[in-house]
# Entry
Amino acid sequence: MHKQEDIQQLTVEIQKQSAIVDRLQSELHKVIVGQELMISRLLIGLLSDGHVLLEGVPGLAKTLTIKSLAKAIDAPFSRIQFTPDLLPADIVGTMIYNQQRNEFVVRKGPVFSNFVLADEVNRAPAKVQSALLEAMQEKQVTIGDQSYPLSEPFLVLATQNPLEQEGTYPLPEAQADRFMMKVVVGYPDKQQEQLIIRQQVQSLAAPKINPVANINDILAARALVKKIYLDEKIEQYIIDIVFATRFPQQYGLGRLQTMISYGVSPRASIHLAFAAKAYAFMEKRAYVIPEDIKAIAKDVLRHRIGLTYEAEAENITSEKIIDDILKAVKVP
# Structure
């Protein structure tokens, strides 16, 4: 059990280190109007070493936000525009023949970067998606018969468009599960939209994003996030939420049994714990409270719950199921 002094000491460290979050947020808000949720979820992914999938209609600044975040951190960034004719070698790299040296040499692909933006990830066929997902999971890439480790931090931030079904290849469940969070990006409100118009129409030059953090800052913040205290009661709370997606009848949610075709994987429990720690860090706290879990539950779980045809016929979404579970599970 953590002693009170440990938590107090950790709180002091967190107060100091979490200034990095404020710096990044204010830098991003130079170019992004609103979209607080998207920005905070990207920062949670960054702090807890989790890949993030952003889903939203075109034009909501998803790509701009990710590019701006990479600029605000002084780190290598690459963007891959997914298209139906993309090949795995276009992502991971390939062997090319060097005539002068009379041998094959490796040309590394865009995945060898700290931040990889996979734009419209559902536009590329399964072979290409799985090449990216191997890199996400294993943190390494195989070219020819040689494996190459990817540099730390390695973060894949992917976007997908929910509207177009034609010419898209939806991410299979097992692959979507590799993303720590799936964030649904919404429209701005009226005031924000007005600000966006003004910014675009009146400004002569786009605001410039300056680097306000470096890789060492991020790795130091991550080390602190890992130290954040997760009480046993909170662990039980996470387990109850996860088990309620698998055995809803045990939590008085028998009606959900016909709605859920499969519950979430153990990866969801790990990601809930990590994301909650990062959320607590952003709130400048040295311990996790139940509200942290509730705040991030939808983003961590929405892409992991399988819906039955019956649920789809009744327009029951995974968000609705998560709401019901959070109401039913006893809060510590």
